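Sat 14:20. Reprocessing the chain from the morning session after the first attempt stalled halfway. Input below, unchanged.
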Amino acid sequence: MTELGNKIIELKKEGYSYNKIIKELNCSKSTISYYLGDNQKEKALKRNKKTSSKPEFVLQKKLYVFRYTDNLGKRVLSKVRDFQRREGSKLFSTQEINFSIDDFLFKIGNKPKCYLSGELINLFETKSYSIDHIIPASKGGKNTIENAGLISSSINKMKSDITVEEFLEKCIQVLEYNGYVVYKK
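Finished this time. Tokens:
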């Protein structure tokens, strides 16, 4: 139980009404109902589990923030936000949306993979992947579906804001420095 939940229950036991609790704790009526209502926690968990159990839903949330500028305050949604807001090194508050979530789902297919490593990506594990500008925004990359790539988070951190060609050159340099011989198929 959270500190807020304990305070709500304590005030209710003291005879406070919902409106008095709202004024006292500066919280919403739905928060009070969550802690005082019958089986509200279980109902909320069941609703969340039902909607968030679909990979399309998880990706939809990522793409929503990827395209819009409002701050929903959710870490999961923050990954997507910058993709269609960024142009060059400047952030813009609005930009035309030129592809839908369905378009992106079609692009990544039924077995989504990192576009650089080929690693399979589980859309449920939101911290394990990002949506990347294939041509970095800082180098003129646009916010189009052709320039949006599903990428593992660790690879995206390594790639940073360089092009795929520059990234591959660096990978080859690291491998050769460590004694590997690199051949292209």
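The longest strand covers residues 129-133.
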